[in-house]
Here is the input.
Amino acid sequence: QVQLVQSGGGLAQPGGSLRLSCAASGNIIKINDMGWYRQAPGKQRELVADIGSDGNTNYADSVKGRFTISRDNAKNTVDLQMSSLKPEDTAVYYCNAGAIGLQFGKVRGSRYWGQGTQVTISS
Here is the structure.
């Protein structure tokens, strides 16, 4: 099993900045892509940004130029630096990773999710 534990986020005013962090732990064999999703009330969960094992990044059009995703392969962490925040960024943010790990003695590849972190942008 692989666990993703999130930290950071919280409250910020429009134009402010917040940082999200996510640490993977457990019986990890390999972590492939890592990313961040968000879900606002009444909306589907959407990809915010992801980063591959090769360092290639993808961003939703709505956050390009404002958010930066990064990862530290040695620490098995992924961060999301959020700047120039807008009220429409308000959502629960979820860390996600495609990983191969051990569960009950078996090698398994799956997609794993963090517990979710509230980000609220309001004046």
About this structure: The two ends are 40 Å apart (CA to CA). The chain is about 0% helix and 65% strand. The mean pLDDT is 96. The longest strand covers residues 91-103.
